[in-house]
Amino acid sequence: MTRLNGAQALIKSLEHEGVEVIFGYPGGAILPVYDPIIDSTIRHILVRHEQGAGHAAEGYAHATGRPGVCMVTSGPAATNIVTPLADAMLDSVPMVCITGQVALAAIGTDAFQECDTTGITRSITKHNFLVTRAEDIPGTIKAAFYIATSGRPGPVLVDIPKNIVDANNPDAYFDFDYESANFDLPGYSPSVDPDLDLVDAAAKLIVDAVRPVLYVGGGVLKSRGAEALGELVELTGIPVVTTLMARGAFPDRHELCLGMPGMHGNYTAVNAMQKSDLLIALGSRFDDRITGRLGGFAPDAKVIHIDIDPAEHGKVRRPDVAIAADCRLATEALISALKTKGYPSSSTDISSWRSTLSGWQEMFPLTYEQSVDGELLKPQYVIERLRDLSPKDTIVTSGVGQHQMFASQYWEFNYPYTWINSGGLGTMGFSIPAAVGAKAGMPDRTVWSIDGDGCFQMTAQELVTASKERIPIKVALLNNAYLGMVKQWQDMFYDERLSEVHLSHDLPDYVKWAEAMGCVAFRVESPEEVDEVINKANAINDRPVVVEFRCVNSEKVFPMVPAGGSNEDLIVDPSQREVQARIRSASSESSSS
């Protein structure tokens, strides 16, 4: 055992947990902890805003599978990190956040930079702690990492009063022994192993299904279950839809991958779910962006719902079979059960269903019109060229808005853990700090941040972090001079009455701004320039690169399910609406007869 103070014990505890990187920002209440960092093996990355620390920790966790760690001080620093905590909670991202707090004796006195951090974050963390004794720090850190990474992953916050980490306080010292540190979590015992009787019941439904669909969510990636999913698909031949949080869990190039469902999913993925007679939900939560108006969602489908969090079962859609278990383990058990039943020779023939889906794919591919001479760039074209000219295992982060949807639609994701975005909370400004975190965790991989001009202006200061820390991310800034998704809604649903959505192509000057932050910067305004500049950007690996692509402001993301509408109300690209109308008319005539 070694006698340490609370600050030293905190850093040593993080080292014992295998922490390699902390994203943080110092301040008064957390300052004592920053002294032992000087002697630590842990790399500290100094962000330019506390929100950036949280999103960087998320990006690191998404890319590596290991918990991201961030550390900030009390008061406004803690409130600044609320958004990343909420984001991580909704997207089940393993993260440990350490916040400084005023001294114990000052808590409740409205002291300088005091706030009720545990109270504020209680509903947006998986769990949080207020540590009151220095000797409790090792056990609390051990508990925090266990909670963040076990069961359904999520963020955990540890709030630490300044006096228990103060080297000048004799009461802050104790005999440190991390291996012997204990924690007690009454009532917390996540179930990971599937109930085999329920697995057998699920297998029976699969054997009998005529129009089955694998509805794959982010839980497959969180469980490291992509390989098991692939084996299940090869065994069953069941088509797959991958939600926004699951892009890459099953390769887009595979003939059975239907792509992304939901509000801006493609026609085939959306309608496959609508017309299915069995939805096999793996680590997905029936989000409203997937279901549309719930009463009209997949009316003829039975549901198998596999999710490690039993609270998700029946929360939105009542399942016929609910399995509370780790997705990978449940998928492996399902494979065994199907083989025991003689699958696939014992199964119902689904070839007609697959033929129907192939027909839809041919009739309703993702489409857009190319730019004409003198017109600015189409964002879809830019993303296609980024996709084709970058390494196949490139990690892509995005902000939120049209560029996010275009990226999820037009990038081909064939590898897991290559798509990082804010799904549940929809946090603008997520992309750049998340890219910093992903690149810090995976330094040998190319990382492209696809961002919009609205999002870029929220967190661009983290490019200073990237420059100073030699983290050479690449940013594709799709500048259409508008808050694009808001404009799309105002165009379509508010009679084109545009209110407070116009930004500017020229203010700020993004190239000068990026250069001022230490980046190499380019501006592209015509299709002829696109490939050359992307190749230049990909060749620069010693500093961050920002490429501003001047885009048209008239593009809309199609397909689209209107907010509050049913998936049956899917709006396709204007060039496909005549075909869609014929199909709807034929379906209506068939139903009436």
Structure write-up:
- Helix content is 38%, strand content 16%.
- By secondary structure, it is α/β, with parallel strands linked by helices.
- The chain folds into 3 domains: 2-180, Rossmann fold, CATH 3.40.50; 196-363, TPP-binding domain (Rossmann fold, 3-Layer(aba) Sandwich), CATH 3.40.50; 379-550, Rossmann fold.
- The protein has a 6-stranded parallel β-sheet, with helices on both faces. A 6-stranded parallel β-sheet has the order 11-10-9-12-13-14, with helices on both faces. The protein has a 6-stranded parallel β-sheet with strand order 16-15-17-18-20-19, sandwiched between helices.
- β15 (395-398), α16 and β16 form a beta-alpha-beta unit.
- It starts with a strand and ends with a helix.
- The model has no long low-confidence stretch (mean pLDDT 96).
